[in-house]
């Protein structure tokens, strides 16, 4: 298929890729989710024909004005047939997070790893796949993509296993840092991510408590992840890429949040948090191969989230749907996720 692209630098420093030749058909697997929502919007705005495939485990409806297929990624035969109609596949669907995967490790492996492998073994095609920097576990120093992996959770282990199959077929793997910020206007916000939950606690409790706080995390706004995914559609590069905006300590993230709420008190304690992850990642490789540059700072998204929360645009911030672990546990208890 003939394909051209035009990269236009926007006033915020990002590169917008505009389709100027044949429209390319994109399948976004898991496109109704936190990352998928913005990614779908950006792709549509750039002139692509986008179809979202999703099981809606976190949503009761999908009203976005784009093509939609309701399906389970574990249905390999059906998914293979569907994918033949598309030029590119972005694979976002997964059980995400340490706690969520711990609810049923076998299910997490089936969804996060086995479904990907089955699909690729049958199609042998390149996909764009989101993994996690959690595969690095706890390490000192700046870690590049060739550094040792040391997954400390089922989540990280299943993602790392899936990576191997994606790379076998020359796919593109984004190892994402810890996300923060608002997604699109349709998909749910996640309130179980460190910056987002700190923002909620600052508003709700007028106090922030940080346990330990010296753990490092690479962080990146969800909208900037979407920017990389969109460039991945027209950039034929393959391999593994670390994706982050900045490496920050947990305590410094708390200070960023507190900076938007002068009356909020910040308390630190030496008691270690149960999450043992601690890593900083090197993003020089992605800067070499991609033109997109993440520019969304923590404070900018904290302000946006604060407005949503303070105006009560989220009716119940304790609802399970905003917390992956709680939602997956609820789905399992209510037998809303089938598992053999």
From TrEMBL:
CDD domains: SDR_e
InterPro entries, sorted: Epimerase_deHydtase, Lipid_A_modif_metabolic_enz, NAD(P)-bd_dom_sf
Positions in coiled-coil regions: none
Chain ranges of the NAD-dependent epimerase/dehydratase domain: 26-227
Pfam (any one): Epimerase
Protein name: NAD-dependent epimerase/dehydratase
Species per Swiss-Prot/TrEMBL record: Candidatus Woesebacteria bacterium GW2011_GWA1_39_12
């Amino acid at each position: 298929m003939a394909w051209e692209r035009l990269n236009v630098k926007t006033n915020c420093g990002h590169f917008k890729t505009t389709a100027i030749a044949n429209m390319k058909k994109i399948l976004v697997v898991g496109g109704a989710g936190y990352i998928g929502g913005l990614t779908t919007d950006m792709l549509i705005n750039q002139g692509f024909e986008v179809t979202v495939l999703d099981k809606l485990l976190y949503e009761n409806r999908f009203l976005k004005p784009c093509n939609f297929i309701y399906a389970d990624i574990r249905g390999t035969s059906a998914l293979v047939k569907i994918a033949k109609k598309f030029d590119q596949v972005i694979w976002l669907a997964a059980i995400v997070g340490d706690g969520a995967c711990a609810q049923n490790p076998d299910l997490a492996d089936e969804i996060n790893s086995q479904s990907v492998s089955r699909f690729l073994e049958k199609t042998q095609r390149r996909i764009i796949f989101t993994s996690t920097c959690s595969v690095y576990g706890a390490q000192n120093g700046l870690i590049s993509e060739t550094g040792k992996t040391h997954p400390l959770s089922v989540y990280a282990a299943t993602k790392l296993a899936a990576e191997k199959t994606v790379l076998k077929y020359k796919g593109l793997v984004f190892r994402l840092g810890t996300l923060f910020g608002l997604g699109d206007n349709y998909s749910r916000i996640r309130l179980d991510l460190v910056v987002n939950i700190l923002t909620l606690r600052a508003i709700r409790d007028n106090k922030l408590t940080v346990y330990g706080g010296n753990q490092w995390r690479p962080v990146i706004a969800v909208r900037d992840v979407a920017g990389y995914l969109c460039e991945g559609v027209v950039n034929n590069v393959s391999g593994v890429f670390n994706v982050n905006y900045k490496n920050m300590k947990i305590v410094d993230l708390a200070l960023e949040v507190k900076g938007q709420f002068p009356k909020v008190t910040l308390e630190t304690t030496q008691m270690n948090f149960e999450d043992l992850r601690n890593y900083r990642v090197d993003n020089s490789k992605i800067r070499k191969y991609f033109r997109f540059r993440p520019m969304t700072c923590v404070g900018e998204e904290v302000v946006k989230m604060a407005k949503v929360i303070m105006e009560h645009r989220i009716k119940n911030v304790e609802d399970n749907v905003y917390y992956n672990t709680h939602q997956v546990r609820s789905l399992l208890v209510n037998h809303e996720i089938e598992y053999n």
